[in-house]
Amino acid sequence: MLRVGIIGCGDIANLNVLGYLRSQETELVAVSDTDLQVAGKKLERWGLRTVPIYEDYKKMIDREDLDIVEILTPHHLHAPMTEYCAKAGVPGISVQKPMAHTITDCDNMIRVCEEENVKLKLYENFRFYPVYLRAKILLEQEIIGEPLNFRINTVAHGGPSMAIDMKAFLWRRNFENCGGGMWIYDDGIHKLSMALWLMDQEKVDELYSWIDYFTTVQDSPSLLFWKYPSKELDDPPKYGSMQFTLAPNVYYPSNYYDCDEFIEISGTKGMMWLNQCTSGGNIISKTPQYPPIVVYSGGEVKSYGEELPRDWRYSFINSTEHFISAIQEGSNPIYTGEQGKNLCIFAKMPYVSTQKKRIVRWEEITSENEQNGSCNINDPVETDGGTLIKYLNRIRKDLKKGIQEGLQHKEFKYQYDL
Ligand SMILES: NC(=O)c1ccc[n+]([C@@H]2O[C@H](COP(=O)([O-])OP(=O)(O)OC[C@H]3O[C@@H](n4cnc5c(N)ncnc54)[C@H](O)[C@@H]3O)[C@@H](O)[C@H]2O)c1
């Protein structure tokens, strides 16, 4: 039985724990959180009331002889916690995205884990969402030929959705804790992961972005577009793009966060549409117009994946199960530390591009350039009272408009504590 410990029992712990609760091969033997009440409530919810809680994660690591540790804390803690756990001899470390604030920290985490013979996993769960796994198989079967263009739109809707702990918003608003904005450098890591994996790429060559509004509240609406490298001389050019759309007054029930994702991939022989991820299973999923996968190819439109679970939790369960088997078999986790670092490079490019108002190349985002300050993300704009009022007014205006147009969900609902 593999002994598992969790550091950070916040919102996402409810999902990260699922794979362990279902597993016959693991036992959750301890948790750590500086907020003992939060940890106690989670254990109660998971039916594990007798599991010990440590306020100090180092004590848990020193005493519990863990095989696997899950690091589910604010971003600035990922690097020091990984280093401590690796040096203390925990053989399997799974750290939630983004891997760290800086490429220097990512490099250090990778080096320490290599030196200590530790398996380091960057936990990015979209990579295991059942619909996306099926889409990847179809793409590998060349159902749309060679993929040429990738597009993903994240729409941040108005809920109703799962309750989020206010603390989870507060640390994200603090640049020192979050390392970037709460869309691109946080949620965006998942989307950038899809942009690489589904397109069978390890990196992009160059990227240009437009982040409308990078403040301590939001780094969205935003639009990013990039070019993939050519593997062969005669490869067709390949591009990708990503949008974050704020639509807080759209009524859009979700079991999880207030957002959903829509992907379109165009290939040399056809097109593929992937409808929904985070909020899969809701009203939209239940309509025949929105099957999970739609493919146009050879003069025919077909849908796929309707028998698959359209529930985001399975992306977590599958990801955790994969890590358990990687530890048992000694194989590589998905993602490795190097791949996790690549996602940080990708996610930093948009901020640097918007700051410098130019195209940014992948090679610019390095540890060396962090030392000379040429690729660092500037602090976001502090939102003063005036900006906040303007922002709130805009949202209220949107809502009013929605009600006039027959919006059912009339409650003023905006998740962010401004
Ligand atoms: N995969 C996903 O889809 C997804 C979604 C949300 C969050 N996340 C990631 O999960 C991580 C946690 O995010 P969250 O939303 O659960 O945040 P959260 O604020 O809800 O939870 C973080 C927890 O860490 C605890 N904590 C802080 N400092 C600690 C310390 N020194 N020792 C032990 N515990 C400490 C806090 O008390 C809190 O309970 C982040 O990396 C975030 O990006 C991933």
Write up this protein.
- This protein is an alpha/beta fold and 418 residues long.
- It folds into two domains: 2-126 and 314-335, Rossmann fold, CATH 3.40.50.720; 130-310 and 336-418, Dihydrodipicolinate Reductase, domain 2, CATH 3.30.360.
- It contains 14 helices and 15 strands.
- The chain has helices spanning 13-16, 18-22, 36-46, 57-64, 78-87, 103-115, 130-140, 166-172, 175-178, 183-197, 313-329, 337-356, 367-371, 385-404, and strands spanning 2-7, 26-32, 53-54, 68-71, 92-96, 119-123, 147-156, 206-211, 222-227, 239-246, 259-267, 270-275, 293-297, 300-304, 360-361.
- The strands form two sheets. A nine-stranded mixed sheet has the order 14-13-12-11-7-10-9-8-15. It has a six-stranded parallel sheet with strand order 3-2-1-4-5-6, sandwiched between helices.
- β11 (259-267) and β12 (270-275) form a beta hairpin.
- Bound molecules: nicotinamide-adenine-dinucleotide (NAD).
Judged by helices, strands and strand pairing, the structural class is alpha/beta
Order of helices and strands: EHHEHEHEHEHEHEHHHEEEEEEEHHEHH
Assigned CATH architecture of the largest domain: 2-Layer Sandwich
* CATH class type of the largest domain: Alpha Beta
Number of helices: 14
Bound molecules: nicotinamide-adenine-dinucleotide
Strands ordered across the widest β-sheet: 14-13-12-11-7-10-9-8-15
- Low-pLDDT stretches are 407-418
Number of beta-strand segments: 15
Helix content: 25-40%
Mean pLDDT level: 91
CATH topology tier name of the largest domain: Dihydrodipicolinate Reductase, domain 2
- Give the N-terminus to C-terminus distance in angstroms: 45 Å
Q: How many whole angstroms does the radius of gyration measure?
A: 21 Å
CATH superfamily of the largest domain: Dihydrodipicolinate Reductase, domain 2
